[in-house]
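A reminder from the course coordinator: this example appears on the midterm review sheet, so study it carefully.

Given structure:
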């Protein structure tokens, strides 16, 4: 029973994060633009030493900062989702390839449903490119999870080596 409860509880962060993504996607175009503009203003202030470069890139249309911020937000939301999905499956005994596949399917299907949901939000649209960006974010979240697991194992090996320096079992 304890194991079943533990498995269910580990999915709470995934569900909560999916609700957060849904909430962001439910904002109309105006509210979404205000959020993006706040971040763009922060970035402009952050790079004020290079104000001439910033102004040239934006004014000449070389770079659309607002669009980049929006796409990076999509990517980041789904990278967090990907990380949380793998983290949630860590208690299952099916093995890494199985829960990697299941996590991928869940992440991509949620990205598709999120874009379809935006059809019904004023000023928002369903874009295939956003599904691709979201899916890439999920995969990046997987990579971050794998890196965290690897670093954790390396740390454990170092601690074990210090604690048991004469252990020569192979």
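Designed residues:
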């Amino acid at each position: 029973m304890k194991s079943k409860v533990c498995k269910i509880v580990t999915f709470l962060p995934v569900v909560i994060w999916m609700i957060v993504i849904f909430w962001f996607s439910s904002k109309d175009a105006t509210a979404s633009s205000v959020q993006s503009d706040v971040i763009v203003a922060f970035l402009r202030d952050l790079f004020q030493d290079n104000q001439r470069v910033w102004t040239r890139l934006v004014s000449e249309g070389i770079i659309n900062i607002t669009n980049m911020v929006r796409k990076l937000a999509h990517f980041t939301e789904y990278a967090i989702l990907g990380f949380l999905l793998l983290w949630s499956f860590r208690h299952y005994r099916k093995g890494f390839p199985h829960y990697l596949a299941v996590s991928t399917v869940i992440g991509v299907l949620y990205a598709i449903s999120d874009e379809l949901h935006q059809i019904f939000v004023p000023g928002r649209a369903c874009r295939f490119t956003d599904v691709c960006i979201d899916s890439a974010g999920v995969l990046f979240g997987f990579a971050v999870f794998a890196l965290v697991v690897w670093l954790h194992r390396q740390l454990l090996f170092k601690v074990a080596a210090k604690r048991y320096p004469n252990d020569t079992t192979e």
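The mean pLDDT is 84. Residues 2-163 form one domain.
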